[in-house]
Amino acid sequence: MIGTGILKGLAETARNFFLSYVSKDRLTTVQYPEQRLPQIEAARNFPFLVYDGAEWDAGMRCVACQICEKECPPKCIFIEKSKDKKPDAVGKPQFYPARFDIDISVCMSCQICVEVCPFDAIKMDVEFDLPTDDRFAGLMLDRHKLSKSNEYYHEIHPTEATAVDTALDAERAKAAAAKAAAAAPKPASPAATAASAASTPKPTEGESK
Amino acid sequence: MTATFLILAAITVAGTAAAMGLRNAVHCVLALTAGFAGLAGLYLYLGAQFVGFTQIMVYVGAVAILAVFAVMMTHNPGEPEEIFSRFWVWGAVIAGAVFLTLARAIRLAFAPADATPATPAPSTTVQQIGDALMHRYVLPLEIIGLLLTAALIGAVIIAMDPKDDPTLEEDAE
Amino acid sequence: MIVAAVNAGSVDQVFVLAKHALLARTPDALQPLASAIISIIPLLVVFPSLFAITTVLERKGLGRMQNRLGPNRVGPFGLLQPAADGIKALIKEDVVPAAADQLVHFFAPVIFVAAAFVAYAVLPIGRNMVIVNLNAGVLFFFAVGSVVELSVFMAGWSSRSKYSLLGAMRAIAQMISYEVPLVLASVPAIMQAGSLSTVDIVNAQAGYTGIWPHWYLFTPWGIVGFGLFLIAATAESNRSPFDLPEGESEIIAGYFIEYSGFKFALFFLAEYLGMFATSALGITLFLGGWSAPLGISLFTVVPSYIWFFAKLLGFICFFIWIRGTLPRLRMDQLMGFAWKFILPMALLNIFVTGLWRFLPASPLNSIRWIVCAAVLAAPCVVLSMSLKQKKKLLIRTYHFAE
To answer: Which entry of B44, C64, C95, C375 is 20 to 30 Å from B114 by CA?
Structure first.
């Protein structure tokens, strides 16, 4: 008989209408920006530079090796090496980037820069709320804007950050042990020079992502 | 010759004149529709409510749409068309003859003895029209109904898909 | 206008009395003009406000029906959303395509809105509250409604765009097909009241036997006629499920695709106004206009215009409910429904009204009810069976795959 399907449909929508006021789990609307859905740990948006300690300038892990600049597919990273050196994450004096710019209007969040960095210096941030009113300068992040602390890294990617910290601590321990061995009275033997050569920090494979 | 009559007459005349004079055929039909509306206004001014509203409903609402569809689908002007045809002299002669005939007929209908504007004719109600249609004019009504039925059946047959021919024993729908 | 009627309290007639008071203060020569203006200004204020309220009601109502919140940012609970929409529509750039027919493109929304407003002239909003009491009021309403089709065509054709022309053709086909059942569905009410004047039709329904009203809805032909009128009114206003001409997901707004800013807002306004006008006519013809549902003093003390707007609000809520429930009808389904079901039922309804009138009125109208209901129900069932799809849905077989 014509109309029975319509009546059933009308009953269904009426149920929806009245129950949406009564039961909270029917309304799945997330009222952004007051409420936000939690992001999974592997979420990523644009890169940032990690620094250890309190000062971003002194604690930056990046040594301006320019591997990420060369590997970046859309070429959105611009690095200028400094003239002097400062100690890096494990203590060895290295160059540091005098200029490290990422153009986030070009960046495609492919994470290749993170994958190739030997120093765990650049990682992916999860912040997507980046409005600006300047199409060019507002979307070119310089090294100050890109630098975020290691504590922040622990907040957004706890598992990764813990693994990175473990690896870095192991290297620091190794470097400290090598320095202590070097500071001890040096026997003029090839074994000592071989040991000191072996103790320079090597890029460690198997960094957890 | 009140202001209302002059305005309505101006709309009608302007509309129909534009219907002849415009270049774009669809514009002509739209101007003609304005003429129809002016005519309906004149009917209402004369107190014939039923005829006036029926004029709007049928002419503006249906005939104009029909005309505009017909023009749109069949008319294909490659270049702008001539407004005046080659035989405009003959057209003017025939139009003049028709006008003279109509004018004479209207003048004779309102002979001086009948020209008493003091008592306007009582407005015809719908009830009177209905009574007349059902009693005095029932035969013309039925014949017109037959004519319209024939037209409808013709339209359905023309528009019918040959696959859906009811003479064939198939259940195509 | 005569202040009459038994139950006319002063709250009920407050607008009529206010108008008389204002008119008494204007000089005699200007009185007809002043009378017209005073009658029209409330119309121009109330119905666009109702339109604004309806847009927010619709969005919130549809949202709740779809288990989501509607707009809730502008104003408390999003109730000032129409203000934001209005400002947006006004300040948007009015883009007219260069190839469009400028004059016709400009006049299409004007004619649409003008026709929509003019239709309100014969609708009685309350006791003694009608702008003009025409002898052929219902006919006037339908005549003005048919002007809308012309404006739809003008809008579609003048944009010189394939989508808009296609949308206009479909819209006109739909409007013409459903105009015939709309008129035929209102004929029984005219027959029973014996007059084409809307005021007479409402006055014929404003009485009570005991507490039961004389509404035409409470008769078998009234129920069917009201149902048919409702369906045809939904189709005439291009409301879902008959909104194929403006199918937002298919032909991207159809015939008003090339309109932006204020003209688009005018189309939107005119469409909703048309919906209100047709609903108001349905209320006038079948639901007793401004009369209260029961003859008890609790109801009759409420002013007549309050009842009218309460019924209108009920119609609006029903339209929103239907929109949230039903999927869109396809063009051939739409046409088939109009010509093969609605039209025969409307013709049958007219016949049954005659039957009702000439059958003897037994106590409780039982004989009339049984006979008329039977005569209406049997063809309805038969026709609805003939509308069913004859195709059986089979499992799809692939000819070229595998």
So the answer is: B44
Decide the pairing of beta strands A140-141 and A93-103.
antiparallel
Q: How many helices (H) and strands (E) does chain B have?
A: 7, 0
Tell whether C319 lies on the interface with B, counting CB pairs under 8 A. Answer: no
Which of C62, C68, C376 would best serve as a mutation to test chain A binding (most A beta carbons within 10 A)? C68
B abuts A (3+ Cβ pairs < 8 Å): no
Chains touching B by CB (3 or more pairs below 8 Å): C
CATH no. of B1-76: 1.20.120.1200
Work out how many domains chain A is built from and give that number. 1
Which residues neighbour C124 within 8 Å (Cβ) at sequence distance 6 or greater? C130, C198, C199, C202, C284, C289, C290, C308
Spatial distance between the Cα atoms of A14 and B36, rounded to a whole number of angstroms: 48
Is residue A166 one of the residues assigned to a domain? yes
Bridge partners of A93, per DSSP, are A87
Flag whether A132 is in a domain: yes
Tally of residues, chain B: 173
Provide, as residue numbers in chain C, all residues whose Cβ is less than 8 Å from the Cβ of A21.
Answer: 64
Task: Tell me what percent of chain B is helix, strand and coil, each rounded to the nearest 5.
Answer: 75, 0, 25
Angle, CA B87 vertex, CA B84 and CA B88 arms, to 5°: 50
Q: What is the pTM of this model?
A: 0.83
Domain with A156, as residue range(s), is: 47-175
Look up the CATH number of the domain holding residue A133: 3.30.70.3270
Residues A135-162 pLDDT 10s:
899 999 999 999 999 999 999 999 999 9
What is d(CA C222, CA C352) in angstroms, rounded to the nearest whole number? Answer: 10
The owner of tokens 């061995």 is: A181
pLDDT digits (tens, 9 = 90+) for C193-220: 988 999 999 999 988 888 888 899 998 9
Can you tell me the distance from the alpha carbon of C279 to that of C230, in angstroms, rounded to the nearest whole number? 8
The residues facing A124 across adjacent strands are A47
C150 in contact with B at a CB cutoff of 8 Å? yes
Query: Does any domain span residue A163?
Result: yes
Q: Tell me the residue length of chain C.
A: 402
Question: Which residues is A87 bridged to in the sheet?
Answer: A93
* Per-residue pLDDT at B30 exceeds 80: yes
How confident is the model over A58-114, as pLDDT tens digits?
A: 889 999 999 999 999 999 999 999 998 888 888 888 999 999 999 999 999 999 999
Sheet holding A140-141, edge to edge: A77-87, A93-103, A140-141
Q: Please state the rounded mean pLDDT for residues C244-256.
A: 68
Mutate: best of A8, A17, A25, partner C, most C CBs <10 A: A17
Cβ atoms of residues B8 and B43 within 8 Å: no
CB contact under 8 A, C176 and B62: yes
Which residues of chain A does C378 touch, with a Cβ-Cβ cutoff of 8 Å? none
CA–CA separation, C110 and C106 (whole Å): 7
Q: What is the mean pLDDT of chain C?
A: 87
Helix or strand or coil: residue A103?
strand
> Closest residue of A to C61, CA-based?
A17
In Å, how far is B72's CA from the nearest CA of chain C? 9
Paired residues of C212 in beta bridges: C209
Q: CB–CB of B74/B58 below 8 Å?
A: no
Q: Which of C185, C107, C131 has its CA nearest to residue C346?
A: C185
CB contact, 8 Å: C378 with chain A? no
Contact check, Cβ <8 Å, C143/B62: no
Q: Please give the backbone phi and psi of residue C133, each rounded to the nearest 5 degrees, phi first.
A: -95, 90
C-alpha to C-alpha distance for A171 and A89, rounded to whole angstroms:
9
Nearest CA in chain C to A5: C326
| CA-wise closest residue to A104 among A43, A46, A62 | A46
Position A191 in a domain: no
Rounded-to-integer distance, Cα C87 and Cα C351, Å = 51
